[in-house]
Amino acid sequence: MKTKTLLTTCALSASLLSTPQGHAKELIHDADHYVLKAQHAEQWAKDDKAVDSKLAEFKKSNNGKPPNIFYILIDDMGYGDMGIPELNSIRGYSTANVNKFSDQAMRLNRMYTEPSCTPTRCAFMTGRQPYRYGMGDTAVDISGFGLPAKEVTLAEVLSEAGYATTHIGKWHMGDIKEAWPNHQGFDYAAFPIHQQGQLTIFNDDASKEGVAVSIGPGQYKETFTKDKWFRPDGSAMAVGVEGKKGENVREVGMKPGERWTEAKYDELNQRYQDQAVEHLRKLAKQDKPFFLQYWPIIPLSAPRHTTEIYNTPNGGTYTEKMELLDRWIGDLMKEMDDLGVADNTIVIIMGDNGHFTKYSPQSGYTPMIFKGGKGYTTEGGVRVDAFVRWPGMIAADSIVADIFNVSDFYTTLARLAGAMDKLPTDRLIDGVDQSALLLEGETKGRRDTVYIYSGNKMEAIVKEHLKLKVPEPGENAILASFYDLQRDTREENPVSTEIGAWGGAEFTRIIQRHMMRKKKYPDEPAAFGKPYEGIDNLRPETKAAVEAFLIKSKVHEQ
Amino acid sequence: MKTKTLLTTCALSASLLSTPQGHAKELIHDADHYVLKAQHAEQWAKDDKAVDSKLAEFKKSNNGKPPNIFYILIDDMGYGDMGIPELNSIRGYSTANVNKFSDQAMRLNRMYTEPSCTPTRCAFMTGRQPYRYGMGDTAVDISGFGLPAKEVTLAEVLSEAGYATTHIGKWHMGDIKEAWPNHQGFDYAAFPIHQQGQLTIFNDDASKEGVAVSIGPGQYKETFTKDKWFRPDGSAMAVGVEGKKGENVREVGMKPGERWTEAKYDELNQRYQDQAVEHLRKLAKQDKPFFLQYWPIIPLSAPRHTTEIYNTPNGGTYTEKMELLDRWIGDLMKEMDDLGVADNTIVIIMGDNGHFTKYSPQSGYTPMIFKGGKGYTTEGGVRVDAFVRWPGMIAADSIVADIFNVSDFYTTLARLAGAMDKLPTDRLIDGVDQSALLLEGETKGRRDTVYIYSGNKMEAIVKEHLKLKVPEPGENAILASFYDLQRDTREENPVSTEIGAWGGAEFTRIIQRHMMRKKKYPDEPAAFGKPYEGIDNLRPETKAAVEAFLIKSKVHEQ
């Protein structure tokens, strides 16, 4: 009852606040945003004025145009893997170019992502946590679901605001047409339909090395294999596709009957790097501002024990590829300088979630600072390196400890691009506007709470530096584990009695408020459809794989 | 047999090498030094020439004098606690002054100490690992043993070479006269006889807070307490003493009957800081080069749950004191600038071992990068932050990944001070000369092996980035745990089969070589004696405590 009243009060005072930038309707946020807003509205309004004035000045100096946006999202890189030379040195490799970039950028030192690839990428694109539209889980093979068309992506928002938009590299939000970047707001997209699970494990080289178990050559004998559709054939699945906005895509680099190999994986990665350079050049020449996404697939590679290159003292299969990627990033940054777009472009480099600890230590990585990695809701799964550069606008070589959620980029970039009026106001948006943090600095963040989900299940709540591991159903709440994340970064020393005694009830109310918001704005399912529809040149084996998938999907109807 | 031959060969080729700096006799080192020397003698000779030439140039520019040395050793600070702003930010405090210092210094990124206070401090002072002279263990209360007079300390070496030498702060190498700094080479010393165990736990405030259990007011009732000597009384033990070389010391700050309190602990710390400043000024004015040691007792403090100051977001009792210490270090660095000695002084700032995890998380610290803390032989116990500054001579803002042992400073500082001929050549010296690393940079280190002991027991061997946890007696060597420290910084993913298959035999030979050296240069016991002899103004209660100790020490003779 008390909670309900509180929410009503918040909603009331929210409606009393002036709308920033003449935005027609208020964005709808999650509960705890209003708790902060009720306390800080006046200061936020002041900060907003300062932000608006800086943005106006920038626009004036940039021929009336908002900044370009270049977003580099790196796969499975945990906190501390890039940008801290001391930690590079401990591990025996160097991300020299990202380190240099970090000196020019603001480090968002408490960047929270989702605990795995698909959810993080969805949260960035939609500004909404993925459980709200059934995208909390990741699929590796043919699956027939994906990001719903009715989600309004940042690419759509920026397109509408006049940006040229391009996506290069990993996408991983489904194998159905409506989920794909060229149907989700990008003018052009080059991307693999699936992700490195298929690309690095479902191939014959990986089978021969024993990385893939029980699939591929040398891994099983057909004598007792009745169900020929049981094992995926990576070579039969669709691989890299490319296409323009609203049009069908075409698969590249694979002929009918051709096998997918590690060499082809390397080629595909090189292709994306080359395309990132090519499109950067193309976009820089256009009159429109641009939004370029480059989501490399490496450093992830087959988790082999050996590597053909051995340039780093570490020599892990991922660290070797990380150095390659770092050189590629260096090339891109140099290209920006050469093109003269370094100063009017916001560049973001970040990881999408922690390491995949399954491949430790031969990958070269293990969780170092935080506990756990990809797939875990401990900090090691959801805290990543994140840097934002905007020369003259965002303080170079700065570090901010304010909490940031990857979904906040959706709202914040829309604000910085002058596209707030293009954001949807008919649904709950998790991403809050963090422009003041970026432009005005530490303590100006507008978030103190993160709801950490695994799939559709809330597993932890972070508020300030306190973290509650949400008790399992039936677990006695008195035993719920609270952690002090500053004093115990690895969540190993619960202070449950000390914090629980006062925080237990308050955290319960945080959960209640959040759940009540979910009742008002209910979760919906992902989009479902026929895999690969919208690829013009499907190979016969790919068609067969889809047919098999469809039959398997319908056997319950027999 | 093979091993013996190898050693003979090494010894032979060693004798063929030219003696650096006209040193009369070669230093005697542990086995693996000669394995490296046999492979790198030629390069080392070249590097030595470069080093000698740089040192000669420096001396010329410094009025014919070698550099001053200022050594700040911080208690229980694990790797990453100082000098990396990103990690400061994660934990919610700032070591702004050490961070600034780190930008001016070389970070020894693989500094290995011993796993606790006494052994590390002994290793630094003597250049020899502490098991060689019975100082592998730590004592907190009255114990009647300490560092033997016949050890040749760096203070004695530098004194003989014409340095003025001063020690301020923690010493912790025994409560017998011969062990004390003013009898071990220092012209002047101000130090507590014991350490923070007594100073922060054996006091009435700690008892009242429940930090000390079963001693002090409110912690026990005498009804069934027959042995009045069972519990230590911190207030009766000797506290801070001060004195000149070879003379008796005097206890300061305690009157007979007075109780030791937390306030008095704070006073003592402030006193040491003031004395560090005072002696820095005094030494800077002298014509002699100086060797000043400042070994603060804070950040260690009573592991209370509350703190009277709350300046940091973290608020842990140790992090608060760490910020205080950081300000003090800032004051000292500024003082050096003001005195004009910043340029001709080598300044070293480092920790002595990992955190004491017993007090996590209320201390504000837990192991973050490596596994374990103080007392453990995992990297978290023995890897620390370490910075060396020497403007114009040592590359500023550099990071080197070469292995360094705290004992190496003994030999290295003697070399940099032009005092190699004062080092003893009648005993095994663990510390190798790392001058080339400091002056010529990364990869020039002369160590690839560390023998990690706990007390008198060898627990682990590090060679390159590989670490063997030495099997327990009777444990099957096939199960011995090997770790790849670059790919698995936290020693959680043993690669025993992968490395053991080739490294097992080689590591066995490393241990054999080391043990054969120990047979040639056998371990000896610590020095034993009457506690506190050599303190002029012992309080009556202190005398009584010593009497009780002596009776207890001799009951076996009844």
Automatic annotation (TrEMBL), chains A, B:
<dbReference type="Pfam" id="PF00884">
    <property type="entry name" value="Sulfatase"/>
</dbReference>
<feature type="domain" description="Sulfatase N-terminal">
    <location>
        <begin position="67"/>
        <end position="419"/>
    </location>
</feature>
<keyword id="KW-0732">Signal</keyword>
<comment type="similarity">
    <text>Belongs to the sulfatase family.</text>
</comment>
<keyword id="KW-0106">Calcium</keyword>
<dbReference type="InterPro" id="IPR000917">
    <property type="entry name" value="Sulfatase_N"/>
</dbReference>
<dbReference type="InterPro" id="IPR024607">
    <property type="entry name" value="Sulfatase_CS"/>
</dbReference>
<protein>
    <submittedName>
        <fullName>Sulfatase-like hydrolase/transferase</fullName>
    </submittedName>
</protein>
<keyword id="KW-0479">Metal-binding</keyword>
<feature type="signal peptide">
    <location>
        <begin position="1"/>
        <end position="24"/>
    </location>
</feature>
<dbReference type="InterPro" id="IPR017850">
    <property type="entry name" value="Alkaline_phosphatase_core_sf"/>
</dbReference>
<dbReference type="InterPro" id="IPR050738">
    <property type="entry name" value="Sulfatase"/>
</dbReference>
<keyword id="KW-0378">Hydrolase</keyword>
